[in-house]
Amino acid sequence: MVIGIMKVRLFSGDPQSLKDKRRLVKSLVERLKNKFNISVAETGDLDSWNRCELGIACVSNEAAHADSMLATVIRYIENDGWLEVTDYSTELIYMNE
After folding, report:
1. Is 14 helix (H, G, I), strand (E, B) or coil?
2. Which of 10, 21, 64, 75 could bridge across to 52 with cysteines, CB 3.0–4.6 Å?
3. Which domains, from first to last, does the chain contain?
């Protein structure tokens, strides 16, 4: 079993308030969960109205598949339109059976 994890830092100039940002981030999180069947949570920059950090995780039986899923997720976020990816990092964790 392979667990793929990714931390993504995002920026947007669109939200005019914290409430605005939270609505947009919640929408993105739900779309990611539904489209890719992954775990997603807002993990940082909770009090910033224009920055966001997401934690993303997926589980697979192959490292290549987990890596591919994370790459597809980051491309989806980049193409979303209102968000700019400022940084991201990925890691694969191998679990022995």
Report:
1. coil
2. 10
3. 2-94 (3.30.70.1120)
